[in-house]
Write a structure and sequence with these properties.
CATH topology of the largest domain: Rossmann fold
Mean pLDDT: 92
Keywords: Glycosyltransferase, Transferase
InterPro entries: Glyco_trans_4-like_N, Glycosyltransferase_grp1
Number of helices: 14
CATH class of the largest domain: Alpha Beta
Largest sheet: 7 strands, parallel
Helix content: 40-55%
Low-confidence stretches: none
Shape: globular
Pfam family, one: Glyco_trans_1_4
Structural class: alpha/beta
Domain Glycosyltransferase subfamily 4-like N-terminal: 14-174
Distance between the termini: 14 Å
Protein name: Phosphatidylinositol alpha-mannosyltransferase
Strand content: 15-25%
């Protein structure tokens, strides 16, 4: 099958949708399908061989954060040329309503269209206002996928229609077999907490973790917090001036280093404050065999099996965060049991199963055309 995947966000910037598209393309290609990905990217960026650049993106406030998107007549021409050259059996658009390459591909595609909705948070007033104008284009979508029940609810309530839930995928073996790094590995007196995410996105909750540091250090003076992600260091230091020595900013990590960090940590902390539709990093940490403490958001609660596969705490509450983490640190046996349960549960999200489910969706929209 010839599959065209479209990502609306700049492919050279780390992000959950970008990682999902990249890994789906790799797994479909390994299964023998011809796959091409179209996405914005900076000039000269190192991209996988199956990615075609739609040109430079520009930062745009969208859906509660700042996304790098590509729109306009030049981008539309590149999208049309990619579609013509591809001769795809199916075109799979991710976040088709984002004002970028996915929406342009939706307008231009003549082959069957599958759309995946990743977000459970529609905060773009401009896009909400534009929905009546976009509805005719939405009728071109032959099948809709949502990455979670939260994302599916957004489709039903805000867009109309329904969607089949196919979760984000994770290469669970890669995380399970990653080698821990000695410099990131904790000790009983100096346990390691890990957090991944952009430093400048408040909804990732780094400020909540920093506010919990006095309680954490009062109980475990040697605790270390390793934070990986893009963003300036100075604002982070200002969040915890008295506890800055406990926070180590690693900057952005490549995939092998990210897996190593998750394998090395004693607890992965997800202090997000909202606007999460799934929680892919929770599954990655679970796959690595690391205990998870996360905000009690709907999406996180579902990934963590209502607390059976990880500890949940009240979102935005530093005291609750500290209590959940200290409970895990105080009982290594319970922490190890929780980590084992999480690792087993993470198998549900392995790409071997997820890619198969996506292919089943493709089959439903292409069967008639190939008959």
């Amino acid at each position: 099958m010839r599959v065209g995947l479209v990502c609306p966000y700049s492919f050279d910037v780390p992000g959950g949708v970008q990682a999902h598209v990249r890994d789906l393309a790799a797994h479909l290609g390994a299964a023998g399908h011809h796959v091409s990905v179209l996405a914005p990217a900076e000039d000269g960026a190192e991209l996988p061989p199956f990615v075609v650049s739609a040109g430079r993106a520009v930062p745009v406030p969208y859906n509660g954060s700042v996304s790098r998107l590509r729109f306009g007549p030049v981008a539309a021409a590149r999208v049309a040329r990619w579609l013509d050259d591809g001769g795809f059996d199916v075109c799979h658009l991710h976040e088709p309503l984002a004002p970028s390459t996915s929406l342009l591909a939706l307008w231009a595609a003549t082959c069957p269209v599958v759309a995946t909705f990743h977000t459970a948070n529609l905060r773009s007033r401009a896009m909400q206002a534009a929905y009546p104008l976009l509805r005719p284009s939405l009728e071109k979508i032959a099948a809709r996928i949502a990455v979670s029940e939260d994302a599916r609810r957004t489709v039903v309530e805000h867009i109309g229609g329904d969607a089949v839930v196919v979760p984000n995928g994770v290469d669970t073996r890669r995380f399970a077999t990653a080698a821990p790094r000695p410099e990131w590995t904790g000790t009983p007196g100096a346990p390691v907490l890990a957090l991944l995410g952009r430093l400048d996105e408040p909804r990732k909750g780094l400020h909540v973790l920093c506010a919990a540091l006095p309680r954490l250090r009062a109980a475990v003076p040697g605790v270390r917090v390793l934070v990986a992600g893009h963003g300036a260091a100075e604002p982070v230091r200002a969040l915890a001036p008295a506890d800055a020595a406990a926070v180590e900013l690693l900057g952005p990590l490549d995939e092998p280093a990210k897996a190593a960090l998750l394998r090395s940590a004693d607890v992965y902390v997800a202090p997000h404050t909202g606007a999460e539709s799934f929680g892919i990093v929770l599954v990655e940490a679970m796959s690595a065999g690391t205990a998870v403490a996360a905000s009690d958001l709907g999406a996180f609660r579902r990934v963590l099996g209502d607390g059976e596969h990880g500890r949940l705490f009240t979102p935005g509450d530093p005291a609750a965060l500290a209590g959940a983490v200290l409970e895990l640190l105080a009982d290594p046996a319970a922490r190890a049991g929780l980590a084992r349960a999480g690792q087993l549960a993470a198998r549900t999200y392995d790409w071997a199963a997820v890619a198969t489910d996506v292919l089943r969706v493709y089959e439903t929209v292409t069967a008639g055309r190939r008959a």
